[in-house]
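Appendix B. Worked example

We walk through a single record from start to finish. Start with the input: the chain for Methyltransferase, Chromobacterium phragmitis, length 343.
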Amino acid sequence: MEIESAARQARHSDKQIFDIYFGFLHSYALLFADEVRLFELLRREALTLDQISAATSLPPRSAQALASLCASLGLLEKRGETFTLASLAEAFLTREAETSFCGVLASARSQAAAFSYDFFKASLLKGESQLFGGTDLFDNNAQDAEHCEIFTRAMHSKSKGPAQAWVEKIDLSNHACLLDVGGGSGVHALSALARWPQLRAVVFDLPPVCAVADTFIEQYRMQERARTCGGNIWETAYPAADAHFYSDIFHDWPLEKCLFLARKSFSALPSGGRILLHEMLFNAQKTGPGNVAAYNANMLLWTQGQQLSAPEATGLLQAAGFADIATRSTGYGDWSLVTGVKP
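Next comes the structure step. The output line below is what the pipeline stores for this chain.
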């Protein structure tokens, strides 16, 4: 047995274990580099380590550690003695980028406790989020206007890329009105309006969220085709629409609550109406993809929910009464679209 064990160990090196173990440093480097505006600095010009140190007020050793780590992650490139911004960071890590993640990173720093090992451990031992003193994330947003705006704007920047992708994967030209349930900033509804000129949209969310969404509707000059409707998804009747869109909503809730929402949509939609779920889906065995498994763990830290597998999402829509159920990749990251039609 000892010989067999040694043979198995010989087939591996420690590289993958180190890759996993050092993952927390990758996250911290990303958060800190954004905080000291490293990516903004390098977007404007290439800098040496000494210049990075001076511009960020970091000790030279710290500047070297941060720049080297970011370069190893594909966020920076070194040319001669200077560092420049890699295309990946230019696309996602500058505040001017259309698909900027900077809002997400700012939101993460505002809840620093959620990134500690003690918080992770406490949440897993309890089996539920320990954030906001046990208050649900969305109940907290309803009570805390400042965090609500930070969170909503963070989700807007995070969702721009996915929103532009899914609208190319389905035809909504025969629909008149899209209800974006839990729509946040309205980023998905606004993308749908840009794609289908006949469409109108209603962004349905908590009143403080709708106040933020109104600013985006005005910014994109969609006031004549889009409006908000404040309400509670569990208690408020949905406004009339012939398509219901849920992005990253079902993953916030236990399966029984997801079924409630699916049935609520089925009751509210007219015959021929469509439901669309936009989610990162597990494989059938719930063993990956890796980012979906991580997102699933993140839901435990922040919400009551979990990531669905494609069979689970299909089963929920079938149980609610929908037909013609289809699942397709949007072609953007790990995102998928699950759709059904009310007979």
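Two observations about the output. Residues 242 and 273 are 5 Å apart (CA to CA). The mean pLDDT is 92.
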